[in-house]
Design goal:
binds S-adenosylmethionine, Rossmann fold, globular
Length: 286
């Protein structure tokens, strides 16, 4: 079947450096975002017979977990990224999780079977859509009437910045010709929506969901064992590689050292942990 892709920049990024880096380092990324598993799965309330759809499943940990919670049902992970899906399939097979499956597709336009799922989940996979209302209408069509949506999405409402933890992107900006912003070149390439309660509610009601509820939750992101390890990892992230692509190596080294020095006071026995918040959103298909 021919694959339809609406979010072409995201497709390129997640099938390029960014996706390969996630596929090669699943444990590192899990240490960053795994703190949201408990609130996400608490909100999803997956039952033993549920059919679960995981949007933007990446390397598949949440899909595997959903499959284990639904031993008489099944879980399908859908993602743009071939390298991340390859990793997801390999691990599910290694762990013998037979009721987890994976498909490559753009969730905004993917031809999901109508009403075939009881629950849709996503951990950070739903804020990259060029047309979020269209994407969530398409995702909603995969849910049976009364089916539930539970997604974790970033929190850009500002409170997250009040932790006192160093703003690493601001520090990097001192070494760059222009301040780095995640919402950059165009709306497709850069996630800019679904990260405030107002955005989320507007998009989901427009897409035909009801009973939308948004809850802020806190979690720590483990960046590395030491400040140096964390700084090295941060400088491997896709957006950071993009910002520094024209910077000379010496300037980049100085930037990395500045980040390491800022993180040094946060080195603790368990590693460098960044406090943060995210939004857990629940809704029902009308
Ligand atoms: C931040 S990663 C999160 C991955 C995974 N959910 C996790 O928590 O480890 C975002 C994921 O969303 C996927 N993604 C982005 N846009 C997508 C789209 N339009 N359709 C399907 N997947 C998409 C990316 O390929 C990537 O795997």
């Amino acid at each position: 079947m021919e694959r339809t892709i609406a979010n072409t920049h995201q497709y390129e990024a997640w099938n390029g450096y960014e996706g390969r880096h996630w596929a090669r380092n699943p444990a590192r990324y899990e240490a960053m975002v795994g703190g949201f598993n408990r609130p996400l799965f608490g909100a999803a309330r997956i039952g033993p017979g549920d059919r679960v759809l995981d949007i933007g499943c990446g390397t598949g940990l949440t899909t595997r977990r959903a499959a284990l919670k639904a031993p008489h049902g099944r879980a399908l992970g859908v993602d743009l990224s071939a390298p991340m899906l390859e990793r997801a399939r390999t691990v599910a097979a290694e762990k013998g999780i037979a009721n987890a499956a994976f498909e490559q597709g753009d969730a905004q336009v993917h031809p999901f079977p109508a009403g075939a799922f009881d629950v849709v989940i996503s951990r950070g996979g739903t804020w990259y859509f060029a047309d979020p209302a269209a994407a969530f209408a398409n995702i909603g069509s995969a849910l049976r009437p009364g089916g539930r949506l539970a997604i974790g999405t970033p929190d850009s409402t500002g409170d997250a910045a009040d932790t006192g933890f160093p703003d690493l992107f601001r520090i990097m900006g001192e070494f760059l010709p222009e301040p780095p912003v995640l919402a950059t070149e165009d709306a497709e390439r850069a996630p800019a929506t679904m990260s405030t309660p107002g955005d989320v509610e507007a998009v989901l009601y427009a897409a035909g969901f009801t009973s939308v509820a948004v809850e802020r939750c806190s979690a720590e992101a483990m960046l590395g064992r030491t400040a140096e390890d964390a700084a090295d990892f941060v400088f491997e992230w896709g957006p950071v590689r993009h910002w520094f692509r024209h910077t000379d190596p010496e300037t980049e080294l100085r930037a990395r050292e500045a980040v390491r020095a800022a993180l040094a006071p946060y080195e603790a026995a368990g590693g460098v942990r960044q406090p943060g918040t995210g939004l857990v959103v629940t809704a029902v298909r009308g």
